[in-house]
Amino acid sequence: MLAYTLLILLAGGLQVLAARVKVTWDVGYLNISRDGSTTWRAIGANGQLPIPPVYVTQGDILELTAINHLDKPVSLHAHGLFQRNSAYYDGAGFTTECGIPPGSQFTYIIETRDQSGTYWVHSHYGTEGIDGLRTALVILDQDASLLDEYDEDVLLALEDWGQEPNDNLLERLKTLSLVGMPPNHPSVLINGINANILQPIRFTPGRRYRLRVISMSFTYWFKVRLPGHTMQVIEADGIYSQPSAADGLDLGPGQRYSVIITAQELLEFNYALNVTFYSNFIARMQGLTPRYHQVPIVYRDDAPIKTFPMIEDHEVKW
Question: Are 166 and 217 contacting, i.e. CB atoms less than 8 angstroms apart?
Answer without folding.
Answer: no
